[in-house]
Amino acid sequence: MTPGEQRERFDHLVRLGRTMHTLGACVVLVLPTAGEPVLEVRSASGTLARVIVIWRSGWAFTWRPWWARMWPGGKWVAAHADNAADVIMAEVGA
């Protein structure tokens, strides 16, 4: 992954985190020394969801385990969608 792609991934997570925080979600942006950045979202019931950014015909947020990204289906939303934070909050129960 190029530095530009890493920066884009980071920017998407920061934007999503700020929007979700504004909507009342408890969020933490995790920046590990090795690996990809993750936005942790804690639901009202205490469930923890980890949101990452992947390339899926464009940048997309997903909150499924890494192995589940191999199959098509739900549990992802386009990173540029105006309602991305709303979709994720509804799915994870934040």
Please provide a written account of the structure.
This protein is an alpha+beta fold. It has one domain. 31% of the residues lie in helices and 27% in strands. It contains two helices and five strands, in the order αβββββα. It has a five-stranded antiparallel sheet with strand order 1-2-3-4-5, covered by helices on one side. A hairpin with a 3-residue loop joins strand 3 and strand 4. It is globular. The N and C termini lie far apart (31 Å). The relative contact order is 0.20.
Q: Classify the secondary structure makeup into a structural class.
A: alpha+beta
Low-confidence stretches: none
Gyration radius from CA atoms, angstroms: 12 Å
Largest sheet: 5 strands, antiparallel
Q: What is the approximate shape?
A: globular
What is the element string, with H for helices and E for strands? Answer: HEEEEEH
Strand order of the largest sheet: 1-2-3-4-5
Total DSSP helices: 2
